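Peptidoglycan DD-metalloendopeptidase family protein
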Amino acid sequence: MGGRTTKRAAIAAMAISLSGCIPAGYAPYDYRPAPKRSDAQTVSRLPSTPPAWELRPVSADAKLVSASTYTVRHGDTLRGIANKTGAGSEAIARANHLSAPFTIYTGQKLTIPGGRYHRVKQGETGIAIARAYGVPWSQVIAANDLESPYILRVGQRILIPSTGPMTVAERAAAFNLDIEDIVTGGEPAIGRGDRPAKATASSARVLPPTVAVQPPARLSGPFAWPVEGAVLKGFGPGKSGERNDGITIAVPLDTPVRAAADGVVVYVGDDVPALGGIVILKHGDDYATVYGHASQLLVQRGQSVKRGQEIALSGDTGFADRPELHFEIRKGRKPIDPMTKLPHRS
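Tokens:
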């Protein structure tokens, strides 16, 4: 314990020195993720349950549907035709250029698009579905033209992109979880009449992982810096080709990490090994923020937070080789440079 304490003190002193000597901006050297250290901090969190994609695994039982033409009969509905053919109602609507309220008429000939269709069941997430079939969730989003907030519907049939024959082990190995997956594919499907849970200010509520979280509708106010410190690495590709979807900020160990804007917690955990302890907030208008390398996670999924509220303590977890905070701002599926949204610092 003494060696670890001494090491922490030395690293903390280095971080303080960096924050005083390096101006906010890009670091003069190229930061690379370090190998996982055997003495890395353990991420502590409030009592909670595993995420829905762990508790509700998916069976790869998609039905193969052949492309065909269907003639509409009296009393047919688009969803009823989907049930008869096995294709997704949304896929049929897209193939036939139908828009809401999806009016069809007797005798109309509809193109039924072929492919593998997975029928979504209660509590299933996009992450678990993509993992079951060994395909990137982003490809499932594209194949089905899914849009924010990316919450699936129980009974919905979604098209699974073809990957060729794969064993269960190969499918599992082919899927790599990333931040975009959690932001867009981490919420469980909802059934007819179900509503996502409204946020509460209390961290005492442990929301069941099979209940979706209702994100804010609108972004409230500008973004603020989550911590004070030097920016060690900026947004975008580095000299060695690695990509940073946010910025890396040097901070002493156990520095309070604060919400960059009002929002709702949609994820707390450490399921992306490179980033260690992570908090993800949604803020409305398709904005989300990500806070990585935390040592302590102080909020709960489904909790509402205010700008400036303490949500975590900084650490050196994940692949960090110094105390630091990884910070992202995302608009929909795309990360954007946080420096374009944060207040200017001298």
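Confidence is low (pLDDT under 50) at residues 1-40.
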